[in-house]
Amino acid sequence: MTWLESLKIRRKLIKTFKSGGIYLGSDERPIFPKINHVRTTEYSAQIVFNLPNGLDPKMVTKKDYIFLQHFGKNVDLDGDHKKFTLTVYHRSMPSTLKYKFADISKVCNGLSLPIICGMDRTGEYVTLDMLKQPHILIAGETGSGKSTQLRSILTTLIKTKKPNELELYLGDCKKSEFHLFRKVEHVQCVHSSARDIQKMLLHIKKELDERSNLTEMFEVSHVDDLPAEHRKPYLVVCIDEFVMLRKDELIMDILTETAAIGRTLGVFLILSMQRPSAKVLDTTIRANLTVSMGFKLRDAMESKIVNTPNAHNLEHSGRFIMNADKLYELQAPYLTMEQAKKLLNPFVVAKGPVKEVNEEIPQLTEKDVFNDVN
Ligand SMILES: Nc1ncnc2c1ncn2[C@@H]1O[C@H](COP(=O)(O)OP(=O)(O)OP(=O)(O)O)[C@@H](O)[C@H]1O
User: The pTM is what?
Assistant: First the structure.
């Protein structure tokens, strides 16, 4: 950035402070916040400023509209009691981001269990490693892009991990999406009825217990530290529209236990829901779903339940707010069903019967589970 460009930005910010009354002293001798530095990249300009002692930070946060008026709507303002950062983006978010595995595989490098969340306004992919951020909640009204995101997350996991490193357990309560994965080598089962999902989760419970015993026996804190002959694959349990199972206590208990202790045992959750329900998410499960992705939601209450502020104001399919270690606004990669089929083709195998578990299964009719869905 040239000296002149920096000067222009600084002047504009001073003008902003002035018109918003963000200063101490009198109108004739104002003491403005001190601009520490201005940094620009291809995508954005970042201006860091400090408030003079005595200036109420609410003067800045309450008047964020002033920054929008002067710098346009593509700005972010972050800060606390003294130091603030204004980021001005040179362009708006892309409304479509094609899923390109060549690009995605590059950003997966170094991640043990890579989740490609989406692209931010600076044109950078935002990624997560499930080993560190183990459980994900995806919420959004119909047509907002949840299923596409699940498809892209699962496809990336399959393409980047070997079947002996990753096992997938899929619950498809809407019977709409996961048939695509049924014959993929990593996929242990795809179930849609409550009874079968219960069976699947009893198997997961057994795995949790076994893994817990092993880590205790070998006195290690993570399954990855077990001796080679006892090493375990990562298990990812992914349930689309899991709210449909909320009346099933056993299912909810196992999901809650997995969310609570799964990380160090290598067992991870991805749960999606169309209508966030405080009742379901008020349980301890919510506290352990470390990442929320809020696609377009119906209202502010739903955004609050999912913990993704403003998700109800999103306008494009595939756009979402992510709450992980901080808040992000991202565009999810768009992976069509046809494209996913092509990418998954090399992993398709002839399948034997689904793993059986021997535990006693309490009788539960589908009506018990599904009749209260609103
Ligand atoms: N990442 C994306 N980028 C651009 N468009 C998208 C994206 N994801 C979804 N869409 C568009 O939105 C449509 C609906 O997407 P999707 O089926 O994923 O929504 P959904 O939230 O799962 O809906 P439902 O709950 O009804 O299944 C897609 O057919 C596509 O046109």
Answer: 0.80
